[in-house]
Amino acid sequence: MTGSERDPYLSVKLQAAEQASGCRSFRPDVEEECVTDEPLSCLNCYFRRWTSDSYRCMAGKPATTD
Amino acid sequence: MRILVSIDDTDNFTTKGIKGTGDLAKNISRAIKSNGWGASRRITRHQLLLHEDIPYTSHNSSMCFEADIDPQFLQNVIDFSSRHLETESEPEADPGLCIVIPERLADPERLISFGYRAKREVLDKDGAYALAAELGIHLSEHGGTGQGIIGAMAGAGLRLGGNDGSFKDKHKVGEPGAIFSAAELCALAQVDEIKSLDGAVLGGDETVALGNMVKSILSGGKTVIPVQLSESAGQAPVWKTCSKEQIHLLQRTGQ
């Protein structure tokens, strides 16, 4: 058990929070699938789809962080 | 008889988001108890590979729990779980069910190894079915492509290994900032240990402050609350429960 690694998804953390704050499609995912402590974040949204190092938004909007 | 029940891929892009895979696992767990088939333990969530080659990866996590059942009800558990996945999963999901009887596994390490491979590689259904047949594991698909059998079997392997996954739901033990001794927190949250991120087990009289949330993970076959050092300058160390982000990272990196 080690927490020393860096999580690549969290490199987009600030951007994900900013985008979600202005997004009308945001819908929180079920609790166990939320990954960041910021409740309103694309990282916690049901419409995000993970890629190997980031995510895509599938809520009918352009991809956010490819 | 001890069994592992593991499910995967029950939700999809168009769902209303009301029922996640964890909710379906909880329903099956409750049915085991309410039907008098046996008793279940807590559900773990196991993070598998996040990669664009896995179609529409929203979570790629599986849910697994242990149960002690009367052997005569094994088929009832399989039948109920199968029907539940078929009726409650979203129409476009690809649900899979895996039920393992650990004491009957000739080579448990092969199942555990499959679980860890699913955290690193894109695996296929043929390989999952071949291993299930060799090891005598129940593996079944219940809609769509049935791709969920891969994650379901991986979840069972990771639970069996005892060093992967976070337990579903948060512990409601107090407000952020509340202070407990490690022994008090263990008793309140009903967990086995409090462990630092570098793996040291906290002594019962060590001090733990609650962070924004309290989650437990499966580590060394035990239920463990992971903590990080909060402050220690010139005094006894104060530990703090890990954030959601740290828990997520532990799951992705396999702890």
UniProtKB/TrEMBL annotation, chain A:
The protein's name in its UniProt record: Uncharacterized protein
Superkingdom of origin: Bacteria
Originating organism: Paenibacillus forsythiae
Automatic annotation (TrEMBL), chain B:
Taxonomic superkingdom: Bacteria
Protein name as annotated: ABC transporter substrate-binding protein
